[in-house]
Amino acid sequence: MTTDTALTAEQILIAAEEVLRRFGPAKATVVDVARELGVSHSSVYRHFPSKTALREAVTQRWLDQAHFELKAVMDDSGGAAERLERWLTTLFAAKQKKALDDPELFATYMVLVEENSRTVEEHIDTLVTQIAEIFQDGVDGKEFKPAHVLTTARAVFDATAPFHDPAYASTWAEPTADERFRAVWKLVLGGLKAK
User: Fold this and answer.
1) How far apart are CA 47 and CA 53, in angstroms?
2) How confident is the model at residue 25 (pLDDT cuts 50, 70, 90)?
3) For residue 72, what are the contacts with CB-CB under 8 A and spacing of at least 6?
4) What is the pLDDT of residues 107-135, one digit of tens each?
């Protein structure tokens, strides 16, 4: 039980995630979130002015979790090709884990993502920007051949979509998923490498 005065936005988001997992996006309400926390629904509204704002914040929090881990890989030491491979592998592993370990919540997030296309577009822009930074390092270090940075980064993102786009989630548990990822990565790397 949380007191109204000690309630934080993070606590609300954690509770909202649990409520969404339990009831799904169609049935989950702000009152359910407040009940989960043991507070009045007006306490939740002090942090999030509407159900839509709360759902957007939950979606943003879910998408942001990938950014931090990927940023660490991006900033890590090593060559650009090695870092880009680790970045893509980390993205695939994170999406695969969410889809396979908690399928109910993953399905709920897919509904929320559909509702929040602006949030998803910003998420994708962040990911493409991270790829672009690694690619630019590769061009600067003569590992990758020069090309338009953002166009190339988006092409890498699009080429690897079967391993991070939730539309392909049903294929991520297949025994050949890792093998297919390695084959796509090899093709992508071949197209990027300086001769």
Assistant:
1) 9
2) confident
3) none
4) 877 887 777 678 888 889 999 999 999 99
